[in-house]
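User: I'm putting together a teaching handout on how sequence relates to shape, and I'd like one worked example. Could you take Putative pterin-4-alpha-carbinolamine dehydratase from Cellvibrio fontiphilus, show the sequence you're using, and then write out its predicted structure as tokens right after it?

Assistant: Happy to. First the sequence, then the structure tokens directly below it.
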Amino acid sequence: MPTQKLTPEQLAGALVALNQTASGWSLHNEKLTKEYKFTHFQHAFGFMTICALYCEKVNHHPEWSNVYNRVNVQLTTHDAGGVSDKDLALAQQMDGVYASLSR
């Protein structure tokens, strides 16, 4: 069964839920978007490395970029034509990794 794009109502509820556990998520150009900030470049790169291993495992990859101590993330499911449950799961995983590295 193909992955389904979330309805506007589902997406609004998902954004509220995501931001209750880890703030910073928004919708920009129909993509879940967040900027993670770290102390140093190596922390940002470590975050990306850990997340990349998970992304490969689940075969779902973010649109992201890194500039020194910041990682900008955009999540969308291209074959669904928008944000799906896959993106929500990846957002939660990324927030968990960030929380574990920020202790």
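A couple of points you could highlight for students: The first strand starts at residue 26 and ends at 28. The chain has three helices and four strands.
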